[in-house]
């Protein structure tokens, strides 16, 4: 019988069972733990405390203080013009989600009240789908509306652009 390669990393203090690496290909029966000596089972990270670490060298070109000749990176340079860019695709998607969610919520309401034919399980499914589409559509549409009105704390940059 071939014993699989097993990496024992620590011993649990209460059960004295070794923690087995999930990379072993075969199951690790507890009888194999007796094959390891007591010194091998008491391996701990305390033996690695005397390793001297040194700081990594810093790259002075990546400093962002403007005094050195760094490359232009547009991700970190925001201008007021970039805040006012309107994400039309995202707003259109938000309006579609809001409309679809409202439609699904009304259909589920009509089925639940009996004004429309259907089973209650169908109404609950439509209710769940309606909530999943209505909530993000309402959230982004509200941000777009308040940004358009110029309310404090709302900007078009808060809406993800696609």
Q: How would you describe the shape?
A: flat
- Class based on secondary structure composition and strand pairing: mainly alpha
Query: Can you summarize the main beta sheet?
Result: 2 strands, antiparallel
**H/E topology pattern:** EEHHHH
Number of H/I helices: 4
From the N-terminal CA to the C-terminal CA, the straight-line distance is 58 Å
Strand content: under 5%
What's a quick, concise take on this entry?
By secondary structure, the chain is mainly α. The protein contains 4 helices and 2 strands, in the order ββαααα.
Note the topology.
Layout: E1 8-11, E2 18-20, H1 38-41, H2 80-83, H3 88-113, H4 120-149
Antiparallel strand pairs: 1-2
Helix pairs in contact: 3-4
List keywords for this structure.
single chain; 162 residues; two-stranded antiparallel sheet; flat
Please describe what this structure looks like.
The protein has 4 helices and 2 strands. The protein is mostly helical and 162 residues long. It has helices spanning 38-41, 80-83, 88-113, 120-149; strands at 8-11, 18-20. A two-stranded antiparallel sheet has the order 1-2. Helix 3 (88-113) runs antiparallel to helix 4 (120-149). Strand 1 (8-11) and strand 2 (18-20) form a beta hairpin.
């Amino acid at each position: 019988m071939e014993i699989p390669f097993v990496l024992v990393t620590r011993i649990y203090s209460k059960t004295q069972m070794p923690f087995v690496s999930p990379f072993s290909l075969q199951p690790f029966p507890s009888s194999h733990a007796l094959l390891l000596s007591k010194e091998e089972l008491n391996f701990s990270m305390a033996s690695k405390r005397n390793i001297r670490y040194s700081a990594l060298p810093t790259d002075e070109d990546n400093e962002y203080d403007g005094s050195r000749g760094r490359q232009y990176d547009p991700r970190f340079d925001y201008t007021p013009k970039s805040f006012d860019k309107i994400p039309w695709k995202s707003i259109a998607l938000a309006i579609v989600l809001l409309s679809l969610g409202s439609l699904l919520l009304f259909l589920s309401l009509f089925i639940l009240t009996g004004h429309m034919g259907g089973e209650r399980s169908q109404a609950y499914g439509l209710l769940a789908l309606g909530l999943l589409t209505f909530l993000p559509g309402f959230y982004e549409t509200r941000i777009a509306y308040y940004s358009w009105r110029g309310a404090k704390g709302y900007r078009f940059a808060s809406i993800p652009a696609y």
